[in-house]
Design goal:
elongated, alpha/beta, single chain, seven-stranded mixed beta sheet
Amino acid sequence: MLVHIDLPDALGREDLDEFYHLVTSSGVEPVVELLGKRDRPDPALFIGSGKAEELAALVREHQADVVLFNHGLSAGQERNLERAVKCRVLDRTGLILDIFAQRARTHEGRLQVELAQLQHLSTRLVRGWTHLERQKGGIGLRGPGETQLETDRRLLRERIRSIQARLDKVRKQRAQGRRARDRSETPLISLVGYTNAGKSTLFNALTTGDVYVADKLFATLDPTLRKVRVPGVGPAILADTVGFIRHLPHRLVQAFRATLEETVNASLLLHVTDSSVEESDANVAAVNEVLEEIGADTVPVLHVYNKVDALEDASPHLERDEQGLPWRVWLSARTGEGFDLLHQAIAERLADRWVDRWLRLPPEAGRLRSRLHEAGEVREEQAATDGGMLLRVHVNRVHFERLLREAGLREEQVRVPDPSVAETDTPSYNPERSHRAG
């Protein structure tokens, strides 16, 4: 049984369609929908006593096993509704938690889902012990039900603390990996977006990876990182993260904070949007809301409007903002149309992080030359007339400046506009300083 009530601040029909997709993604078979409209939720039953009676009759008629609400319910409302309909009642948060539990594959993912489930359960423990006696009175008059409830709460708190400690360890391990990437100045490009927008399809196309892809909400839950070579940029780390959704439970955001840190620390976010759905603007707003909640709203963003092949009057193209920077790329991750525009846009958005120019090195700078080969791309190389070297390099700027400092050189000493105008004067070079620095 599906229940959806239109409230003054509800999202309307699109939200109901998404709820139906959530239900089918969880593996449940919907048999009937109960729709209604209220000015405000009923404090006891959410839908009111009249609708509750109608719901109970439909449950008996269709022999439903579970009633799913497209809304958040309090513990009391769930308890009262279960008494009225005589079957299990689950709200939107509980449904999303169940889907996450099905999708989690890695040890970290299972820990994060369990933490969110236990935090959600902690406010609903009383529902599990209503069949036991819970006497009220004074000291010495507590019944076995109340004692059992207190024991359960204590075990729950201990389990939550244990999971949080293990996730803290995972967070530290991820921080070590990020520090290693920071030392190599490898840019991190993180894919974010609404669930089922095609992030994993795009990720597989860019990395030739094997991330699971399906037409389901939250098909990909565990984060995946791959090293790729982006034309015009060089080596980069591409991260595929969990998809977002409207009204994403706050507990899930908190539980998956370790995973979402890959987004917070990214050099560039690729915000993937399904351009073929009418509510694409609302989906973008929902993703931006979560990005703000996790502190990633200051990371540079390149919008990628996917599934352009599903539109009749659109083709792959690139849009720029008022400053002339790439803003939106329209492409198809399934067919590969528009990937050249995506690579161009990424290269332009990360251009300030890279040096792409001709250099003239003196004969003594062989060590610097080998370090430049290690640090990035030496796209062209020629021998100078005095035994020096002419190189066209594409290398991370921070690393480039550090290598020059180690060699005792300044950029203006080695920079040349073109081999045809390279000067014959040998720049001042200190091989001893370079040797000690290395």
